[in-house]
Write a structure and sequence with these properties.
alpha+beta; 3-stranded mixed β-sheet; 19% strand
Length: 98
């Protein structure tokens, strides 16, 4: 499979706008710069508009400059006020004892 995206609609609480969360965007390394990634994001934008969803959110590796340039060229806005959290390892186990 040369490319795929995985996403879900998100419906936050009252008075907040619904949107799409892009979970995965994958383009095989032998296929970069062919417009596949942009085409996948464009399809998500179409889905968002058709479903009256206000935005598309995702996370990105902060040290992957090629990827960040791609997202910047799409016109996406970096949101430095947001942090990505992960609960795993000991912290996950401590919250789910058996």
């Amino acid at each position: 499979m040369p490319a795929f995206s995985a996403f879900s609609a998100i419906y936050p609480g009252p008075s907040l706008q619904a949107g799409i969360f892009l979970k995965e965007l994958y383009v095989k390394q032998t296929c970069p710069s062919g417009g596949i990634g942009k085409a996948l994001i464009r399809e998500l934008a179409i889905i968002a508009r058709e479903r009256n969803l206000a935005h598309i959110d995702w996370t990105a590796e902060a040290n992957d400059q090629r990827l960040l340039r791609f997202y910047d060229l799409l016109g996406a806005t970096r949101k430095p006020e947001k942090l990505f959290y992960r609960l795993d390892g000991k912290a996950l186990l401590s919250l789910s004892p058996r």
